[in-house]
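S.,

Sequence below, as promised.
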Amino acid sequence: MTGSTHPKRPRADSAPGNHGTFSRGAPPALDPWLWSSVAADVALASRAGPEGLEARRARRLQRLLDAAARHSPLCERLLKGRDLSRLRLQELPVMHKGELMRDFDRWVADPCLRLAALRRFVGDGRRIADAFDGRYVVWESSGSSGEPGIFVQDALAMAVNDALEAWRRPLLRPLQRMLDPWWLGERVAFVGAIDGHFASTVSIERLRRLNPLLAGRLRSVSFLWPVERIVAALEDFAPTVLATYPSAAMLLARERRAGRLRLPVREVWTGGEDLSQAERRFIGDAFGCQVANSYGASEFLSLAFQCGHGHLHLNSDWAILECVDAQGRPVPPGQPGATTLLTNLANHVQPLIRYDLGDRVVVHAAACACGSCLPVIEVQGRSDDTLRLRGHARGTVDVLPLAVSTVLEEQAGLYDFQLVQQGPGDLLLSTGLQGVEGDEALHRARRALGDFLRSQGAEGIRIDCRSGEAARALRSGKVPRVVAAPCR
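The prediction came back faster than expected:
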């Protein structure tokens, strides 16, 4: 998020040669015939058996590898001399964002896509959802894994994303959707990063342009505004559907429970961060409605949706996820890995093959009671920092961020927090809660966290607490919850 300022804006004319065309005001990518074909397949695959899903994956992986070998100079080098018809995905090296961004111009499969031109494009806040070179949808990632990225979507990638959103997003109110299939009776508010070319912001603006009838029923509210301003904007719009990050949903749920927010919300959609069962219950109880969670990333926006049984189902007909340990070895089903590798079967213009997402995901072997054969996954979110604290016998103690979050949520009831390490034995725990509520929550949290750290072998840890202090966010508005001290 860039706040109210933007980098210097480029001229709204065409850049010659291989630098891309800015085509100011060009319509966002949509191929109706391609969308119809993909949507029909998505609808059929939603109830396909394991064999049908595997056949789709194998066919699409072959097409991706063939296209990458022909059109991406970087991938051509990686795939040269290999028999692509017999190639096992696990034989290929892992792709990392930093390396790919440094070799961006050789990575992409269209010579009109050049990193310098794309950076100028996303640096212009007036161009959100414009088509780059008249063909491509472009968004930037927040850098939550330490490295910002730029991701380009062609017509196929957008058709897949649109079809998955249309057919696999859960219907929380089926009767209402039957009576109002075009959502003309709804008002949808998105609370998030609205000043940059982030995936959610681009998607909303693109939808507004594609369907003018919905334009007035979509409202974006900045995640970085003061709470009072967010509340005022939402109450003025009176949304029936609220879409945001879990951390923002928790903030608004507390405002609702405190009587400071009055909304006719009938559905809450969350995504972009981990959503615990405790947070889901808190948000649902506060708004008196169902909460639907999804999982996606800038690299693949619609990776998984929640079913009626509350489980996330991976869209495995269009995406392959590999859970691996720290050495890149596959982990058994039902166990979390150190990270997750993504192969995006829909995007041929910017091939993502065994790409390190940085998320910790569990893929379960058991089928879901909802009847879908799409795999059930459990997402533990972006990997926050592991704390390395002062210990007594072993010198230092490593504390996993998921363990810290679990202690603070389940033992102290503190959901809105940020823990920042300031030294080997110094932690700063802050919360946006204010007054007596904030002080009491921090008192419980300090005690629970202190007991836990001592049980882990940490010694002499000082925990300073601050209430009424907003967590430090990334440019996109996403908030890391556990931040380690910089390496020295």
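The radius of gyration is 23 Å.

Coffee later?
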